[in-house]
């Protein structure tokens, strides 16, 4: 029995990177092959460099948790639920997440880890039956998360550079891309093919690509925080919805077409402390605590991104718990800071609209 033996005395059939020496047949002594310095150097060149805690765990986890929800749905959450319930939602979300993180830390530090991520850890702790079934669910969750991220990127690109779908005049000279359902599908397919090419090259190109994306995300978040202090009060033109626009057809409630970015004001904060659930701007459905919580919970997932890189880490038992906990604490602070800043500077009309974008008052 070795460190890689399942804790419930199941025997894993194989391991990707595990190579155990077998005893030689009876009557034959162990064969020793001399290895020269040239062969050692060639073997070292063939073995790829392993990733550190920061590049292998912290950055993938941060990018998975800093999803499109950060830039597209923070205003939606605070606008409907208010600041108090928004903070309570984050506490509830991260309580659920921390239970999973602590379990991952316990399993990853209790013996040797190998390639396979969550499947390997669960298989080693509970056996291949549980590991296989839960691994399939993780696979499907990653597929859905990938679709969410790609669609969020396409939505931001179309809203920023696409021609308005309602036939109105473009408000920016950069709005030149054709828009529509099939065009969005085409853009999403292109983005997904680019992701496939990066993953097919290998984990090291993936690590370099994620680091560049991490720098871009941190730069954009920095501009968002600076804009809260640098941009003065202004009036924001709210986007129209081609799928649900009662102002056009004359049915249903009327929605505001403009909103105010007031800057930091005490009156704005006091008016945004309590919940005020209204109809969703694009669907016309009444929002509740459960629906807003479900939308925002997508932005707090992705904690297994670092664990899935276990086969490419220098020391998985050391890197996974420290990197994952660091990323969780950092994202929790950023989410709450953004909620407080939005509640202090944006009125209820601007924040209750689902399609509010930070760039509406960031790049001004």
Polypeptide structure, described:
- The chain is mostly helical and 364 residues long.
- It has a domain at 50-110 and 203-362.
- It has 14 helices and two strands.
- The protein has a two-stranded antiparallel ribbon.
- Helix 4 packs antiparallel against helix 12 (316-345).
- The longest helix is centred in the N-terminal third of the chain and has 35 residues, at 74-108.
- The chain is globular, with a radius of gyration of 25 Å.
- It starts with 36 loop residues before the first helix and ends with a helix.
- The model is unreliable at 7-19, 27-35, 39-46 and 351-355 (pLDDT under 50).
Summarize this, please?
By secondary structure, the chain is mainly α. The chain has helices at 37-46, 53-65, 69-72, 74-108, 118-126, 128-161, 181-201, 203-230, 246-249, 266-271, 289-297, 316-345, 348-352, 359-362; strands at 234-237, 258-261.
Residue share in helices?
Answer: 55-70%
User: What's the number of extended β-strand segments?
Assistant: 2
Q: Which blocks of ≥5 consecutive residues have pLDDT under 50?
A: 7-19, 27-35, 39-46, 351-355
**Secondary-structure-derived class:** mainly alpha
With helices defined by DSSP (H or I, 4 residues minimum), what is the helix count? 14
Mean pLDDT score, rounded? 76
State the distance separating the first and last CA atoms.
64 Å
Order of helices and strands: HHHHHHHHEHEHHHHH
What order do the strands of the largest sheet run in, or round the barrel if closed? 1-2
Rg, rounded, reads 25 Å
The largest pleated sheet is described as: 2 strands, antiparallel
User: What sort of overall outline do the alpha carbons produce when their principal axes are compared?
Assistant: globular
* Beta-strand fraction estimate: under 5%
